[in-house]
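>> received
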Amino acid sequence: MAMFRKSTPKVVRRSTAQEADRKVIGKGKRAPVVRRFKEAPQPETKPASAGRTKSGNTRRSADGRKRQRSGESGGGQNRSSGQQNRNQRTSQPRRQRRSRPHLEIVQPPTDTPRKQMLVRHSDHQTQIVVLEGPVLVEHYVTRTDRTSLVGNVYSGKVRNVLPGMEAAFVDFGEGKNGVLYISDINQPEGRRKRIENILKPGDRILVQVVKDAMGHKGARLTNQISLAGRYLVLGAGPDLRGISRRLEEDERRRLREIVAELRPKGMGIIVRTAAEGATREDIKADIDRLVAIWKEIESKEDTPAPALIYQEPPLVLRVIRENFTRDFRRLLVNDQKVHAQILDYLEGTEPDLVEKVRHYKDEMSIFERFHVEDQLRKALDRKVWLPSGGHIVIDRTEALTVIDVNTGRFVGTSNLEETVLQNNLESAEEIARQLRLRDIGGIIVIDFIDMEIEKNQDSVLFRFRQHLAKDKMRTQVFEVSHLGLVEMTRKNVSAGLLESFSEICDRCNGRGVLLHEDAATVGTPLPTSEDDA
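>> returned
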């Protein structure tokens, strides 16, 4: 039995202060060196041909990071110089990696083209798109058979309480039961209870949808009701307060004083970015509208469950409420009825924007006129080409979205580091646009091509955060990981572009591959008799 006993590994650290290597030594075995992600500067001398093979492709180095290949052959000189570089890299001190997201406020680029919004309405669906110059950056769609429930308030009935998950399943009258976590239930401060002591099956509870049902998951619900207006968000409790961080400090101070004067007793208010430049009368009118809706909801709180208590406005009005500001050049609508609906809404909320709304009457389709169809078709592809010839590949899984960056046909003009930097900068800008356009949410991991110079890494991350600042959805970007990956999250509340215009393949069941018919017979067949054995 001794042959199955594993020797206990022994960890040895070198005494040199500058040494970042760590050795794991097993009995009778050579000690491999485990290197961490390198953040140190380049060595002074580095052969130009080290570690390079074919042009336009990428490879992984020994420490797992992606490196760009160039068109020079290496030979024995490459192997020796590569070993020297590895020895020098491991002798450099390693920079501490941050474990928290980057919280610095980054403003969007100042050279963003003027925006316009297009609305195309038909009998079975309504589409709204946002263009920055000629480039499509956002897309929203609602269908008669598939409508978003986010923001709706329901009288729900508790069907099941799961103490182990600290959650309850609530029937709110829209098919699949929604999930309500204990963190989304109103409780007095300092008197927190377990969910089984708060809810019982059969209880009636007021809930609001914060995330649509997706796949096999039901809708995400909350008991902490909030109402969104043009300039403000109104909620219960005076502790709910805040002002958009996108506003300048002087404007934040002005709005804070106005809201402190007008805040209803016992209510909380969050000031939105759209409130920039709004007068005291505008904000008061918005508060009055929201308070009226709040009182209407309270009057229906005892409605037998399940039942709809309050329904959010149609998608067109929600998008205009959330996005349409003075920054837009115009809003074109192809349907006369929807056009009148938009005018009526803006006249009651922000009359200054009415003159920007126009009825599109040309014979050519509004999306064809502005080349939206072609851009939408490309946004459904897995591969996205960059202006320089590089490309990114976007793959979505159950757990997260993975984005890979490649140089493709781009070979550059000066040197490898400059080529990779330019490709990564283009990729950072395009990835930020694709996240908005495709409405990709959840965990996102980006594999940029590795760069040796730390300043170039910072430039790519700053460019990425700068273009993410144009996104209305909340995002968090973390520092580069040990493997050279950029990790981030983006708020996800509804189905994305791909889910809106696709179905799960019934042949592969969404896996993307078909197994061979003889897949189950691969390997050594089992014996069928004692003689065969």
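>> Residues 153-310 form a domain with the OB fold (Dihydrolipoamide Acetyltransferase, E2P) fold (CATH 2.40.50.140).
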